[in-house]
């Protein structure tokens, strides 16, 4: 046996048959060592003594150290019945059955003679005897009493009264007299409680053998009559329910031509209890699924069970008589095992995990519990070890640990394991004076994949990306999924930033390859932020923060790129965080305002509507345009409440103009967040209700990205708004990838040409072709067309020539809180 850790008291105690065996055997062996009246010893098939308890030393005059390892027949002579004794033992070995208890007259090595009452029984394994246990009681004194009784003659009454054994005189079946010892044994007040009764009156209905007491009593009585006397064991039951066992010597005598008998009874309940405990312990020992090994005080093995052979591959015969250190696998220094024995010597117990090696040279973990058993003199008499194979438990622990440290979807290290590895990488970098790179990766527009194709496709994409990322790094590097579509990579021990840039380029190329899943072909891109230790930080938190900042910068610069961290990026992120915090108070502080830009009909020059444009009157920064804060509001979840405020304010202002005699349509831009929120229709209803504005005077502008989402919820929301009479415009048309098929699904009223096309009039021939094409598309869908960003008469003339309906821009009017609604030049 060997182990991976120094010997020490363990903290885990396996439950089950092995633990039960340990407790039972410990109590039993300890009891046998301390039992003052029962001598217990065992021999193997060759008659060699393997166990010798403390009482054996008193009975045979031979200590355990002198007896163990020697033939039993060399320790005492059975005089003229030596052959009979050997035949009795041989019969037990051959039949596997317990020999009937009987008296043996022996002569010890010191010449002293003893009478022993002995029971021999085998310990079986698979029905084959493995050891032969013997329990013996010194009955020399009783033999002297019997002899004196016979010789006493006239003095019988005196001996009868003084005998320490219970004596019962029987005439026929009835008890006619008992001595004081019998009164005490049967727990009676006086003779009158016994005389006149039979021994059957103090017996249970059925004996332990399964025979009824009546039948068994008739048999022993007949045997005593034929042979003159007969010795047997009997179970008695007293009126108070207590049972006890007695050894009975039943003798038949003839007095005045009348047949009498007397029974000498000795309480053997302690011995029977010990026999039962020994039999139970033997069964537990042999049938335990955990390996059990027992040694003497010199660490010589005296018993192993079948589970030991199964566990170690070592047969019992190979280890019996050998020292426990002989079981070492060679994987540890001898000092390891000496530490175990030293610990047991002080604490009487040691538990710990040990690595064993079978004959086939495969190693496996075992939980070993070693216990010292002490005799009445507090000296160690035996050691017992119980070994439990914990291979499955270790495998389960490893599986649990793996699940706790890895992402359930991709099986990549999760944040817990990632942080541990990053900490180790930084410690190594400081020691080796090298660099470590942390790469923060975020898939671009991944949410659209989940929304368009479903989460099952999104999960398949994440698993494929995880596989590709792992293929781009070395074995010493770590790829971790942090959650959602975010991944982090540790590049350990790199030479410089060029190596990190090379890996980032490889990652971008790998991720860009199309992913096929569930019949769909999906194109991906990734934004990557890189922080280098020690240049960009020395601790885990700083490096992660800076890599995240760099990734955010890569996204801000158009996505599908990687960016190294620098101080300017951090300043930008700090500013963004400040804006987010200030945005959260802007609504309650009434810092927002709306400016309105007129929308003019090209044919009539009349102002037919206005577009509400949000501004932020910042207390320190002044008036901020939408591009300076709207992206932040969308990312931090503030766009919905801000959008609801815009709706209410715009509707209220449009109603006020109408009341003043200027009925114009007010256009309000909707964000994607408002569509996803699910409460858009209710918000529109509330704004119209509170303002009293007719629905046809509200125009909601929807971006192409929302239209392209095409999910059922979006279609239903657009339809519900149109049913209420609200006008719907597709905003920034031409900048996305919408198709006629998608547009036909929505009940739109107007199409707005993006300013990027208007800006190029009349410089580019491509634009000269695109704008008429866009107008043609709108006409095919029966939509009005409005162009934004018109700044020159030349641009207006071009639009008018190609049939555009309306326009807005600086040429007509700049946005203001009080727009000029008078007619414009045509």
From TrEMBL:
SUPFAM superfamilies per record: EAL domain-like, Nucleotide cyclase, PYP-like sensor domain (PAS domain)
SMART domains: EAL, GGDEF, PAC, PAS
Gene3D superfamilies listed in its UniProt record: 3.30.70.270, EAL domain, PAS domain
Domain named PAS: residues: 24-96, 277-321
Residue ranges constituting the EAL domain according to the UniProt record: 576-826
Domain (GGDEF) ranges: 434-567
InterPro entries: Biofilm_reg_signaling, EAL_dom, EAL_sf, GGDEF_dom, Nucleotide_cyclase, PAC, PAS, PAS-assoc_C
Domain of life: Bacteria
Pfam families hit by this protein: EAL, GGDEF, PAS_4, PAS_9
PAC domain location: 350-402
NCBIfam families linked to this entry: GGDEF, sensory_box
Protein name, as recorded: EAL domain-containing protein
Source organism of this protein record: Massilia rubra
Lineage: Bacteria, Pseudomonadati, Pseudomonadota, Betaproteobacteria, Burkholderiales
């Amino acid at each position: 046996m060997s182990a991976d850790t120094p010997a020490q008291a363990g903290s885990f105690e396996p439950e089950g048959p092995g633990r039960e065996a340990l407790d039972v055997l410990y109590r039993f062996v300890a009891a046998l060592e301390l039992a003052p009246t029962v001598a217990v010893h065992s021999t193997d098939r060759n008659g060699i003594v393997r166990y010798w308890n403390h009482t054996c030393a008193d009975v045979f005059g031979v200590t355990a150290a002198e007896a163990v390892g020697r033939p039993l027949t060399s320790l005492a002579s059975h005089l003229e019945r030596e052959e009979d004794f050997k035949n009795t033992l041989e019969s037990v070995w051959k039949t596997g059955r317990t020999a009937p208890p009987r008296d043996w007259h022996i002569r010890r090595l010191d010449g002293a003679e003893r009478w022993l009452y002995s029971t021999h029984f085998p310990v079986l394994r698979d029905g084959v005897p493995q050891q032969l246990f013997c329990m013996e009681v010194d009955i020399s004194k009783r033999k002297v009493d019997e002899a004196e009784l016979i010789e006493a003659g006239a003095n019988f009454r005196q001996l009868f009264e003084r005998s320490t054994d219970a004596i019962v005189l029987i005439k026929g079946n009835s008890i006619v007299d008992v001595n004081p010892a019998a009164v005490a044994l049967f727990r009676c007040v006086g003779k009158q409680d016994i005389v006149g009764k039979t021994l059957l009156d103090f017996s249970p209905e059925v004996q332990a053998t399964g025979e009824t007491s009546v039948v068994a009593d008739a048999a022993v009585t007949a045997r005593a009559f034929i042979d003159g006397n007969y010795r047997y064991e009997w179970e008695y039951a007293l009126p108070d329910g207590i049972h006890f066992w007695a050894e009975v010597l039943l003798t038949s005598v003839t007095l005045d031509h009348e047949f009498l008998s007397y029974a000498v009874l000795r309480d053997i309940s302690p011995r029977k209890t010990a026999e039962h405990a020994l039999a139970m312990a033997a069964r537990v020992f042999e049938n335990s699924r955990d390996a059990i090994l027992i040694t003497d005080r010199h660490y010589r093995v005296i018993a192993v069970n079948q589970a030991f052979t199964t566990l170690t591959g070592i047969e019992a015969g190979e280890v019996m008589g050998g020292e426990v250190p002989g079981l070492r696998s060679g994987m540890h220094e001898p000092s390891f095992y000496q530490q175990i024995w030293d610990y047991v010597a002080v604490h009487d117990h040691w538990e710990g995990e040990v690595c064993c090696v079978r004959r086939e040279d495969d190693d496996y973990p075992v939980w070993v519990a070693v216990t010292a058993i002490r005799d009445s003199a507090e000296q160690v008499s035996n050691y017992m070890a119980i070994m439990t194979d914990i291979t499955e438990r270790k495998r389960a622990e490893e599986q649990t640990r793996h699940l706790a440290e890895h992402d359930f979807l991709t099986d990549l290290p999760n944040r817990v394991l990632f942080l541990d590895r990053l900490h180790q990488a930084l410690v190594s970098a400081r020691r080796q004076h090298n660099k470590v790179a942390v790469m923060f990766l975020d898939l671009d527009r991944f949410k659209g994949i989940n929304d368009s194709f479903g989460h099952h496709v999104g999960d398949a994409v994440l698993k494929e990306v995880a596989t590709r990322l792992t293929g781009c790094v070395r074995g010493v590097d770590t790829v971790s999924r942090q959650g959602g579509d975010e991944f982090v990579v540790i590049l350990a021990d790199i030479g410089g930033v060029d190596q990190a840039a090379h890996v980032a380029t490889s990652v971008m190329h790998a991720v860009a390859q199309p992913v096929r899943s569930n019949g769909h072909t999906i194109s991906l891109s990734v934004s990557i932020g890189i922080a280098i230790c020690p240049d960009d930080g020395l601790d885990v938190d700083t490096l992660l923060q800076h890599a995240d900042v760099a990734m955010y910068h890569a996204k801000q610069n158009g996505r599908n790129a990687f960016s190294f961290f620098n101080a300017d990026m951090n300043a930008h992120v700090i500013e963004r965080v400040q804006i987010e915090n200030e945005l959260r108070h802007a609504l309650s502080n009434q810092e927002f305002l709306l400016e309105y830009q007129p929308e003019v009909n090209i044919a009539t020059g009349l102002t037919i509507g206005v577009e509400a444009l949000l501004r932020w009157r910042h207390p320190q920064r002044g008036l901020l345009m939408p591009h300076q804060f709207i992206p932040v509001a969308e990312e931090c979840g503030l766009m919905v409440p801000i959008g609801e405020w815009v709706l209410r304010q715009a509707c209220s202002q449009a109603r006020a103009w109408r009341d003043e005699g200027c009925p114009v349509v007010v256009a309000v831009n909707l964000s994607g967040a408002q569509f996803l929120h699910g409460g858009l229709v209710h918000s529109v209803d509330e704004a119209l209700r509170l303002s009293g504005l007719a629905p046809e005077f509200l125009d909601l502008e929807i971006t192409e990205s929302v239209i392209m989402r095409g999910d059922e919820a979006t279609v239903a929301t657009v339809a519900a708004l149109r049913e209420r009479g609200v006008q719907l415009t597709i905003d920034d048309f031409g900048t996305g990838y919408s198709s006629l098929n998608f547009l036909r699904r929505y009940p739109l009223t107007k199409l707005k040409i993006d300013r990027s096309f208007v800006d190029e009039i009349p410089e580019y021939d491509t634009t000269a072709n695109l704008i008429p094409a866009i107008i043609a598309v709108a006409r095919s869908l029966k939509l009005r067309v409005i162009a934004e960003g018109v700044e020159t008469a030349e641009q207006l003339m071009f639009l008018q020539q190609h049939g555009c309906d309306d326009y807005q821009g600086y040429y007509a009017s700049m946005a203001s809180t009080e727009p000029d609604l008078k007619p414009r030049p045509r």
